[in-house]
Design brief:
251 residues; alpha/beta; Rossmann fold; 40% helix
Length: 251
């Protein structure tokens, strides 16, 4: 069991290649006081890979991130016993499936041939997990209990949406890091899959990554009714959704 010296413990869940680190950087800036970020933890309650701040001091917020984990596994975490009289906040973030898949695939192509083959052999498992996260995001399932949900697309595009999230979770509104997404990756180890192909975050076609995949034969095979249905319920009829819907119907 861990002892966590903090007012608020944030349990953060998201799929890899969903903008986790950029959003976490912004999220922690919504609080006054010291903060600590422990990255990519395992489901054993041992916080590791400290990316920001210190664990050995009294913090206003300690954020523990979990990537590519099932929402069904959250009942294995019992942090409440370690931070008596303090609060735990669950946060679930989601990026639209088409741009997420594009970043996930681009990242795989930077790896060895063996890693690339493994990724493609397991892609269905990751898509199933994305769907699981989407169902939890929508409230169709409630494995995480009370939680804050953050739509990556809206977070990136809309200041008013960021203000709503900030008011819900934090002490103040701060957008000073929203233009530092690229810098966060360069300095904190969260590298964009498309890094070195853009010069500036405002030039990032973060919601147009899907174009990278659209002509790949494998991409067409990944589309199914449930993926499209979950996507449109959360993100609306985006250009990517409409293209993929038409592509599926033409199969």
């Amino acid at each position: 069991m861990v002892n966590i010296n903090t007012d608020i413990l944030v349990i953060w869940l998201g799929m890899r290649r969903s903008g986790n680190h950029a959003m976490i950087n912004w999220f922690l800036d919504q609080f006054n006081g010291t903060t600590c970020f422990c990255n990519d933890n395992k489901l054993d309650e041992r916080l590791r890979k400290i990316k920001r701040g210190e664990l050995g001091v009294r913090n206003k917020v300690v954020l523990a991130s979990y990537e590519d984990k099932s929402v069904k596994d959250f009942n294995r975490l019992r942090f409440k016993n370690a931070i008596q009289n303090n609060s735990i906040m669950h946060v679930l973030i989601l990026r639209d499936p088409f741009n997420w898949l594009a970043s996930w695939t681009k990242n795989a192509f930077k790896k060895s041939i063996a890693v690339q083959e493994h990724r493609w052999n397991t892609v269905d498992q990751y898509i199933d997990m994305w769907k699981e996260h989407a169902r939890e995001f929508l409230g169709d399932t409630k494995h995480m209990g009370d939680k804050v949900t953050i739509n990556y697309n809206d977070w990136f595009l809309k200041e008013e949406y960021r203000k709503e999230i900030s008011q819900k979770v934090g002490d103040r509104f701060s957008d000073k890091t929203i233009t530092e997404i690229f810098g966060w990756g360069a300095h904190r180890g969260a590298i964009s899959s498309f890094e070195n192909e853009e010069e500036n975050v405002r030039d990032f076609a973060l919601l147009d990554r899907w174009h990278y995949l659209k002509d790949m034969p494998q991409f067409k095979c990944l589309l199914d009714d449930e993926l499209l249905s979950l996507s449109v319920r959360i993100f609306g009829e985006t250009e990517a959704y409409l293209y993929c819907k038409q592509l599926k119907e033409a199969k």
